[in-house]
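Response to reviewer comment R2.3. The reviewers asked that we include at least one raw input/output pair. We reproduce the pair for ABC transporter ATP-binding protein here without editing.
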Amino acid sequence: MQPAVSVSSLEKTYRSGVFRSRAVRALDGVSMTIPPGSIFGLLGPNGAGKTTMVKILLGVAYATGGEARLFGHEPGDPVARERVGYLPEKHDFPDFLTAPQMLNIYGQMAGVPDEIRAQRIPELLERVGLDHASEQKLSGFSKGMLQRAGLAQALLNEPDLLILDEPTDGVDPVGRREIRDILLELKEEGKTVLINSHLLSEVEKVCTEVAILNDGQLVRTGNIDELTAVDRTYTLVCTAIPNGTRAALGNIVHVSSVASQNGSGADEASLQRYSVHPEDRAGLNHVIDRLRNAGVEIDSISPVRQTLEDYFVDVVKPQQTVTG
Ligand SMILES: Nc1ncnc2c1ncn2[C@@H]1O[C@H](COP(=O)(O)OP(=O)(O)OP(=O)(O)O)[C@@H](O)[C@H]1O
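Raw output as returned:
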């Protein structure tokens, strides 16, 4: 299937200063693809080149090298633009308008015909949970309501690709969840969502794939679960492993901590937390068999994952140290 976005060897050098003598290489040969139907996070520290990438995809900045394609078309091509919806970080809608009035004006500017606007605007307001606030001016909206109004605006032209800049920044946890649920619904409908964000815990909850830019270069891209999985390491919570059994298992099992008291009775055994590092699945099952034979009661065993934030810091930090 054709990617929603593909960029190859993409470069952007800004020139500024006297005689445009100062050059900043904002994108330095970036190649990546965004599959259709994915929620994709574009990540990177300040100045990494994320906004520049978004501007090129929106056709408002030009690449100085390489190429970008949206559904196979150049970003400036009207056929590509028609398929894209955009929610900027600072949208600043005129706040003396109500949400339907704002959507009507933006829809008009986007060339959505009168009769389609009349039908679509109430549908969109319902979809983003603002139908009850149709009479209210935007000046009285909370940050979460404003972001949902912005999302409705970005969906006015029924885009196949939605580009969102920090969609949940400043929104409270309930509002974040509401926005997340809308994005997941859009994904179910086969839409592609590209999120440019610093809020890694949010990205982790909603995105399936990410790309990490640093200093204009793509440093990692892939599925979040695969990127954050710590190779064959498990946390095991169980009753204390007898010394002899633990010695027999050697380096595979390490004590981490006392996990909790198992029950309230004085005779109940404490639960311990161990970290288990088997070579493969057979090794993991061998550990479990040995423990069960030794009378150990297993409470839980789960694979260890880094948070996306830990992963991000690991990936970006060494390069930041080098570049200062
Ligand atoms: N119009 C411009 N003229 C000159 N340099 C620019 C211009 N726009 C961006 N840059 C520079 O290009 C680099 C990448 O900027 P960009 O805004 O794309 O990064 P970003 O990842 O979006 O950062 P942030 O997270 O802070 O928004 C930075 O060094 C920035 O200073």
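Residues 173-188 form the longest helix (16 residues). The first strand starts at residue 5 and ends at 16. Further pairs are available on request from the corresponding author.
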